[in-house]
Every structure is written in C-alpha cells, then in structure tokens.
Amino acid sequence: KCAERWKQMNEPEKKCFADTDEKDKEMASYAPPTEAGGRRKKKKKDLNAQKRPLSAFFLFCADEHFNVTAQYPQYSVGEAAKALGERWNKVPAELKVQYEAKEALDKT
C-alpha cells in the first residue's frame, strides 16, 4: 500500500517528505555548543588505572591503625581517625621524615 501511494504522488508532494527527511538527518548529527555554563559529561572511571600513591599521613595510619583499634576497641571509624590525626600531630619530626621518604618512594 505505502509503495503504491508513493508511486502515485507527484514531485511537490514527494519534496515535502524529502525536506522532512533532510531535517531529521541534520538533527541526528546535531551537537549542541558547549558553553561555559553548560554541564559536561562525567568521565567514566578507568577500572584498570593505577591507584594514587598514599601520602605520608596515610602510610602512618596504615601502620598505627591496628594499635589504635587494639587500645580503643569501642571507637567508631571516625573516632579512630580522629585519634590517628592527633597521634600524627604529636609524632616527632624524625619519624615524619621517614614516612615522607616512604611517600617519595611510592610516587616514583
């Protein structure tokens, strides 16, 4: 039926459909301009990417976390982190230098 109707149409009627088809093709390839205020698509996370090296503080936390949880088993994760931060602030400079050296090794 459709093919028969198409064959019976004259050129001006067919031109209307051809124009609509062209507009549809243009819209399919349309990419809106990226403006400063426009939202950007979030990059997909690479699951195979290497993790960042740990900072000196996090290396210290990895070593001390067991001691804090053994000493204060009732502490929540947040309280344990706060205790680790306080310990880091009280650590002598010589020990901090050791952890900073480990950090530098991890970064290379």
Automatic annotation (TrEMBL):
Skewed-composition ranges (Basic and acidic residues): 17-27
Domain of life (superkingdom): Eukaryota
One Pfam family hit: HMG_box
UniProt xrefs under PROSITE patterns: HMG_BOX_2
SUPFAM superfamilies named in the record: HMG-box
Region Disordered, annotated ranges: 17-47
Domain HMG box span(s) in chain numbering: 50-108
Residues of the DNA-binding region: 50-108
UniProt keyword annotations, A-Z: DNA-binding, Nucleus
Similarity-based family: Belongs to the HMGB family.
Official protein name in the record: High mobility group B2-like
